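Discussion board: Methods & Data

I've been asked by a reviewer to show the raw model output for two of the constructs in my manuscript, not just the figures. I'm not sure how much to include, so I'm pasting the format here to get opinions. Each protein appears as its amino acid sequence followed by a line of C-alpha cells. Is this the kind of thing reviewers expect to see in a supplement, or should I convert it first? Here is construct A:
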Amino acid sequence: MPNWAFVSDVPISREQYDKLDAELGSSKPEGLIVHAAGESGSGIRIIDVWESKQQFELFQSERLGPAMRKVGIETPGNGDGSLTAMQEMSVHSLRK
C-alpha cells in the first residue's frame, strides 16, 4: 500500500498550535512518517506523511480531535472532525 500524505492550512495561531502540540505529547502516533508545521498566511500549514490514510483517521478520531476540544480549538471542517481544506495525495516518492 502506498504512503498517504496531506497538506492543510488550519486557521489557528502559533500559540494555539503549541498548546495542541503539548496536549498531544511527544509520543509519535503509529503510522506517522513525518509531520511538519509552520505559519502560513491563514494560520498553520500542516504537511503530514502517513503509512496509510486509515492510520491518520484513527489518530484524528482517537487523539487529535479530543486534544483539540480539550485546548478549545474548533475543528475546521464540516462538523464531523474532518478537515475540508485538506489536499490529499498518494505518495509516489519519499526520501528520508
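Construct B, same format:
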Amino acid sequence: MSGFVLDTTVLIEYAQGVEPTTARVLELIEAKAELLICAVQLAEYYAGETPGTNPAMDAFIARLTLMPLTRPVALLAANYRYELALQDRRLRTPDALIAALARTTSATLVTNNVRDFPIPNITIERLGGNP
C-alpha cells in the first residue's frame, strides 16, 4: 500500500480552512489518493470536540481510511523510540506510531510539524507550519 498518512495537525488545519493545508488535502482528495489515519490521529482530532456534534468534521474523517495499529506497527514505533533514546532524543509514542504507520504502509507522512518526526527512513511532505 502507499498513499498519504495525514498527521493530526493536517486534519485540524483542514477542518479550520487553514492554507496551504486545505488546498493540498483537497488536491489529494480530488486525485483519489489513499488518505490514511490510525487511532492516534482519530483520538487527537476529536480531543476538542465530541464526535457526532460537528457534521463537517465527521464527514471529513469518514473519507479517510482508518488503519489498524498492528503488532508490526507497534514494534517499529518502539524501535524508533529506542534508537532515538540512544541518541538522547525523545520521540513521543503517538508520533512514533504515526511514523511507523507511514513506514509500514510505504506512505508519505503529511505534517506541519516535521520536527516531531526525526526518523530518517520515512518520506515526509511538509505543509507550512513548523520546520
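Answer (T.O., handling editor elsewhere):
This is acceptable in a supplement if you add a one-line summary per construct. For B, something like: The mean pLDDT is 93.
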